[in-house]
Design a protein that fits this description.
The protein is built from 14 helices and 24 strands. By secondary structure, the chain is of the alpha/beta class. The strands form 6 sheets. Strands 22-23-1-24 form a 4-stranded mixed sheet. A 4-stranded mixed sheet has the order 2-15-17-16. The mean pLDDT is 96. It binds uridine-diphosphate-N-acetylglucosamine. Uridine-diphosphate-N-acetylglucosamine binds next to helix 1, helix 5 and helix 6.
Amino acid sequence: MDEFVIDGGRRLKGSYLVNGSKNSALPILIATLLTDDECVIDNVPRLRDIRTTVRLLETLGKKVVWTGKRLRISYARPLKTHASYDIVKQMRASILVAGPLLARFGKVRVSLPGGCAIGLRPVDIHIQGLETLGAAYAAQEGDVVLSGRLRPAKVRFRFPSVGATENIMTAAAAVPGRTVIEGAAREPEIEDLAGFLRAMGAKVSGAGTSRIVVDGVSRLKGVRHRVIPDRIEAGTLMLAVAAAGGTVTFKDARPEHLAALIAAMKRAGARVAAVRGGLRVSAEGRPRPISVTTEPHPGFPTDVQAPWMAYMSQAKGDSRIRESIFERRFLHAAELARMGARVAVSGDAAFVTGVSELTGAAVMASDIRAGAGLVVAALAAKGRTVIQRVYHIDRGYERLETVLRRLGARIRRLR
Ligand code: UD1
């Protein structure tokens, strides 16, 4: 299994063109199930999760041609309405096929995603939303089975789940009449999906606010769409620069998608400036200790919490991180401790006592973002770090070692 070997302590410099967003591409690719027409999706990152999504679409009956950053998705045969466990277990976002398939065919069967390293991650909000649209739900042999003809309705979420918002929006696009989602997630990826559904022929307004209105239509058409830049990839690399020191320009990074992180980084002493078509980050020395709480967008994103912890490990004082989205998302704390970080975890809070220097060690990635946090720590640390289970990192970052090497880091992949 692949490992990263990182010799830390080198400043990062240069410029980097941010990839297309994984979390935006996934629901958009899955929403192509709404039509038999050809769809062309551009700026798709070459990642393991996208490969899994392509396989999912292919097993359901789509033809997918992937060249460079472009995916061309077209009709191959009548679609199946069953997504089996061997794919769903690899990627929880597979549950997003429920909405579109149910809306089109009146039935769907998706294996129930299990828990994962960062939390239980149930799908009750997805199911309740689809029930409100008129679906009947049954649990069968570990699968979620939903059936019935959907009708427009007012759906109210108890929590702004990103996935549930996407699932219901996508379903509603193919249900003639007006569906209203209240308590919706406000992430930029939701706005991107709304743009895609609009282009397909549905009317969608309010995406980016907590009330989304979808006027669905009976036939949606194929379209061409360019995925937004990945704010989490950008945010992770911005924290790498902040932690290791240096100056990097991030082309295509959107400051408006990264406002909470940028504000926290500035308070910690990093310089972050909007430049034409992107952002420039520069940093020197140890940061000031700044406490953050992860929250749904536009709050501080849980997906950069681990890299943030790595950054704060070397702060000039004590800080606190409260994780309000996932119940077990501090697995990286014990790994960072192996590198000399001082982190005490209690319930949903981590207390970080800044140290003057992290030191290289052998560590292990437990999920995508925890792995990214270890990379950030390793870049800032003195000496050599070996990170195992790099496959987690590969789910969400395209050839991270090549990107970082170009920016001046000493990192290589051992196969
Ligand atoms: C998405 C992102 C993920 C990010 C997360 C939160 C994708 C592919 N993934 O995941 O990177 O970390 O948003 O920003 O876009 N919940 C329930 N019941 C449900 C659904 C969710 O209790 O039916 C809970 C989850 O267990 C979790 C919280 O709500 O504690 C947030 O989950 P959600 O917003 O749904 O995240 P995902 O869409 O899975």
